[in-house]
Amino acid sequence: MSREATISILLVDDEIINLQNVSHFLSKKGYQVTTAANGSEAISLLNLTAFDLVITDLKMPDVDGVQVMTSAKQIHPEIEVIIVTGYATINSAVKAMSRGAFYYMAKPIKLKELQDLIIKATEKTVLRREVSFLKQRIKAQQGVTQFIGHNKKILELKDAIAHFAQLDCNILITGETGTGKELVARTIYELSPRATKRFLPINCGAMTEELVLSELFGHTKDAFTGAGKMRQGLLESASGGVILLDEIGEMPMTMQVKLLRVLQEKKIIRVGDTKEIPIDVRILAATNRDLKKDVEEGLFRQDLYYRLNVVTLHVPPLRQRRDDIPLLANYFLAKFSSEDDQTRTVSPSALKCLEEYNFPGNARELENIIERSLALCGDGDVQVCHLPAELHTYDDHMISQPPAKHMDTAKSLEENEREYILAVLRGVDGNKTKAAKIIGIDRVSLWRKLKKYESNGFRIS
Hints:
Elements: E1 8-12, H1 16-28, E2 32-36, H2 39-48, E3 53-57, H3 65-75, E4 80-85, H4 90-98, E5 103-106, H5 111-144, H6 152-164, E6 171-174, H7 181-191, E7 199-203, H8 209-217, E8 218-219, E9 231-232, H9 234-237, E10 242-246, H10 253-265, E11 267-269, E12 276-278, E13 282-287, H11 291-296, H12 302-308, E14 311-314, H13 325-336, H14 348-356, H15 362-376, H16 413-427, H17 432-439, H18 443-455
Parallel strand pairs: 1-2, 1-3, 3-4, 4-5, 6-13, 6-14, 7-10, 10-13
Antiparallel strand pairs: 8-9, 11-12
Helix pairs in contact: 2-3, 5-7, 13-15, 16-17, 17-18
């Protein structure tokens, strides 16, 4: 790929002939050129796409070139801007340069001079890109370590991520809810050659079919009721980058057909349009469903499944790597503790409770449990009494008693509730305010329950 082909330019001019001529010249030179016929359209494009350079006319009726430059610098602080105008004056040039323009050109544009300026302006951009890429590679290498643990399955997953990130192929990421599928996708992106472009996660289960179509492919003006202006789709806006299709198994069948065509043709058609637009995106897909079973049952297209499933990475559930639970628990403990308070720990008995729990919500559930427990334990360490009720396998203050793996189903709900409340009270040395917070009720409700227990002959100490 040529150096020019890696440079993306946003060209802004309300004079259509000039816009077309300059765009044609730069495209022939190999640059990736996007055009905007006014300042408002330019700012909309800047919000959607990361460009390396903006070349903008100064005098435009709605939003002028200085406003375009200001917005560009706010959205992408390192972007370079060249301003051109037919009304060149020393004052306007000084003003433009003082506000951050790379250069100020007078019309008519001398194309050879413009090309020389682009080379000089983008030398900085390319250098910044290379530095940014190296930083992201270092960050991504560290990011792989976010998969805390030394379990064999996690070590194998880390190796696979590092290997396949470099290959520009589609990847299907499978695993239960809360295992960290998006973290896998982000790490693949950060380790890949596309790390300087956009990473865009899209939740396929959160959009209706009509919304998916409009959001993914964009639409023309007046394509449907309410479409007051042209809108670039997400697939187009992420060109050059990586898209994560999360919950891909929830995508409607009709949308699966359209997605398959995109993967095959590398082109999209906006809603209401007939023109094909080429795109360059790497697709990562994630699901907690058994897509192979869905294919057999006719719920998911077989051809799309094979297109997405070039490589499969499976994220194991937490119950299959219990040996990593203490490491993860302490990692989350450090994450949610303040910088001045990194001395608290999870007590051995609380760790034992965590290790014996099945974690249907996986690492995400463990993270939430640790965050909640820290909020309840005050300045002390995390004890059994600070954990949710379903994790209370045994009590720190009753260590001599044999641990109860599960709540006694032979007892009534009221009896189990009473034992839990009394255990929490013992765990906080009788502090009713703390106990009420841990249990999740107000102090008055706790007081009433304790009065009821006393009236039934139970001694509350």
